[in-house]
Amino acid sequence: MNSSLWHGERPIFSVLVPVWHPEPDHLAACLDSVRSQTTADWEVCLVLDGPQPAAVTELLEVDDNRIRVKRRPENGGIAAATDDALEMAVGEFIVLLDNDDTLDAEALGTVAWEIANSRDVDFVFTDEDHLDAETEERINPFYKPGFSVERLRQQMYLGHMIVCRRSLALAVGGFRPGFDGSQDHDLALRAVERARKVLHVPKLLYHWRESPTSTAMDAGAKDWAYEAGVRVVASHLERTGFPATASRNPRWPGIIDLEPELVEHPKVSIIIPTGGTRRIVHGADVILVEQAVQSIVKRSTYPDYEIVVVLDSHCDRAQLPAMREAAASADITFVGDDRPFNFSKACNLGSIRATGDILLFLNDDTEISMAGWLQRMVMYATRPDIGAVGAKLLYGDGRIQHAGTWSRHGSPAHRYVGYMGDHPGYLAALATAQNCVAVSAACLAVERHKFEAVGGFTPLFPLAYNDVDLCLKLSRSGYRTVVDCATEVIHHESSSRDPSVADWELDLLQRRWGPVLHADPYDNPNHTADRVEEYPPTSTFIADLRDHFGESDYRARAWPSDQEHLRC
Q1: Which CATH architecture has domain 268-517?
Q2: pLDDT bracket for residue 536 (50, 70, 90)
Q3: Residues 6 or more apart from 54 whose CB is under 8 A from it?
Q4: Arithmetic mean of pLDDT, 49-60
Q5: What whole-number distance in Å separates Cα of residue 1 and Cα of residue 33?
Q6: pLDDT(175) > 60
């Protein structure tokens, strides 16, 4: 082994390549892409998974002692072959590379530099694109968000390329049998459960070759791999004690649905500040808070909750009997607040009078539309490392009003505003729960002890950004913020007040949280409208979008116009 090529006694990277009957030209391109790296700190651990065509074995008859080869007498599957490659490895980090894909020339050097400049990194992933099956043109880039364990639980969005500290991969058991096709998802979940730090490098460093048998080209080509994905997630749920069951999403390939399976049902206090506003909704003149309370009682199936209505000075107390009647048999409490309206103060006051272990803040202009919404919110809110939990909010006409908050150029904004409620989002982003910088207080759940530990809502924000500020305070205390896109709540937004935001409100938020707001950890700096418009959506979703929306309309819905995308 030519160790003189390495900076130390062993290489930084061991590139694991399981081989099973690839096109010889594709395998040659794969190996050439490793040889072309700008760093020499690598080895290739290549495992022939059973007998291979002569043209494949001939490719390996080269004088390059950086490429180590093991031959398995029989085909054992990709998990077994990759695990054999892991056993061969001596590098500090392993890199997963399929036998027909290629690495960008700067892939390993870029990752090495990122690792060297970030302490305690155990796991790294990068952005990727596809190689066209006929032209070899690079197409369909996937600009991934930052690391989100909530999304990874439901979608193997990390894809390629995956880099994991070798000692960690070995410590969690390597590649396990029985998960072929989703063996990388299985390793990723077990590794990130124990990793000190997960790093995302937002650069297109891996090129995934499209072929008739690849999920890069046909989502149904490896249906068995998606079934393995369900088993992977089920194993993760059991291992981590996450209170849910896993199943395949019937519509979007590769997405795993989670159904709450709660062991305990802590009391939830639903806190609704209101001024008793009336509005025409669904063609009827209604008192918004009365409608909200009615929808909670009518549709909620959670066994233990109370409703705390905080009445401001504009609320007509004569409405109270009707609201009590609307609540029917539910436990409802009214709290008067005659101070000038301040949403933060009203929510804090409601939390003091509440008796639940979980506080769920709800706008009076919301309407509950699904039975298990509280179960889903509790499923996430009770996790020890999760702070605020939000829902996907829909306008009355079914379009999206809120699907989490991201921050670009220092200004927080709702994601996917105005999109159809059943839109999948960028590569199925709206089909999963995921982490984000903040969620809307129009529907926000948090455990009481976490809420109180950070001081509740900050009264300096009487109207806007109080929810963003709360989520960032929770994040600073080590808690993740989650938006669960499977929890849908109707939000007749701006029924109660002027929706515009004053300059001083944004200025105050930026003075408090400027560095965080300018570096959203869950965004991708390359995911801009002009770059997205440059490429069509990946073929995994093209067929589904065409079937659902029709040939003429699918492209506009898959990739919105620049103006729409910047609003999303």
Answers
A1: Alpha-Beta Complex (3.90)
A2: very low
A3: none
A4: 92
A5: 20
A6: yes
